[in-house]
Specification:
About 40% of the residues lie in helices and about 15% in strands. By secondary structure, the chain is an alpha/beta fold. It has an eight-stranded parallel β-barrel with strand order 1-2-3-4-5-6-7-8, surrounded by four helices. The chain is globular, with a radius of gyration of 21 Å.
Length: about 300
């Protein structure tokens, strides 16, 4: 029996998504301060796992209303004291006077911290409107300007590819970012997103608005589906229907969930890399495995860390 000839395939064979990744990217990692000794051990193991990837910096978050101020400070100080990593401390405007915030900033500078992630911050009571302290910094732009008066910090700020949920419109949100950059911010780190087009369109809009500062995509690998849905609802990030369906019925299958989470996040990073993005900021949730795997796919390899 003679088989019919196959029609020629209409497309050229595309190279695999990561075929051209050669490690020419810069990465940074975000952690949150631990609430217990066990969590502190997990955090430190994650830091030690990711440190050989030579991140530009690692940042430590700051709870609403300064609720983790002491733990944030202790974590950042330990990173400075025990590693060669550049540590960035988050600092917010919420429920603090200018004098209090400036004092915290001076303490960071004296401890060897040279990088601040300056944020307006969320209200201490979720769902309530933000109210600036009467003697505090009104917003993140004012905080950036104030920090530059304290010391010559490197300063990162936040940006929102899918618009801050409290912004009146996309134009107002972009104008707020420009005020932060004009006040002295060195870069903007984006809220997480799951569509490469959302970030790339935002990047173009920022450039058209005259924002010249570096804009770094924030990447959140999905280690917990329920947690990610909650985060997305709080910050206005859209979860595509296909992605929501992808994680259905995986709550009792952690290994499968990890594999799918790594695949989805790596695909997002790969598409951004293919379109010229070379800097990535990973929200680790104090877990190293997913961020490490994605960095490996992007060609970032571990280097020996001096002890």
């Amino acid at each position: 029996m003679t088989l019919p000839a196959l029609a020629p395939f209409p497309y050229s064979d595309p190279a695999p998504l990561f075929a051209h990744a050669c490690g020419d990217i810069a990465v940074s990692f975000e952690f949150f301060p631990p609430k217990s000794d066990a969590m502190a051990q997990t955090l430190w193991q994650s830091i030690e796992t990711l440190a050989p990837l030579s991140p530009r910096f690692v940042s430590v978050t700051y709870g609403a209303g300064g609720s983790t101020r002491e733990r944030t400070h202790a974590t950042v100080e330990r990173i400075v004291r025990e590693t060669d990593l550049a540590a960035a401390a988050h600092l917010t405007c919420v429920d603090a006077t200018k004098e209090e915030i400036d004092s915290v900033a001076r303490a960071y500078w004296e401890a060897g911290v040279r990088h601040i992630v300056a944020l307006r911050g969320d209200p201490p009571v979720p769902g309530t409107p933000y109210q600036p302290h009467p003697d505090g910094y009104a917003d993140a732009a004012a905080l950036v300007a104030g920090l530059k008066q304290v010391a010559p910090f490197e300063i990162s700020v936040a940006c929102y590819p899918e618009v801050h949920p409290q912004a009146s419109c996309p134009e107002a949100d972009l104008d707020n970012l420009k005020r932060k950059v004009d006040a002295g911010a060195d870069r903007a780190i984006s809220q997480f997103f799951f569509s490469p087009e959302a970030f790339l369109r935002f990047q173009d809009r920022a450039a058209a608005a005259g924002i010249a500062a570096e804009i770094v995509p924030g990447i959140l690998p999905v280690s917990s589906v329920a947690q990610t849905r909650r985060f997305a609802g709080q910050c206005g990030a859209a979860i595509p229907e296909w992605m929501d369906a992808m994680f259905e019925d995986l709550d009792d299958h952690p290994t499968a969930r990890q594999l799918i989470a790594a695949t989805v996040a790596a695909e997002l990073c790969g598409q951004l890399y293919a379109r010229g993005v070379r800097h990535f900021h990973f929200y680790t949730l104090n877990r190293a495995e997913l961020a490490y795997a994605i960095c490996h796919l992007l060609g970032v390899r571990a280097k020996a860390v001096a002890r």
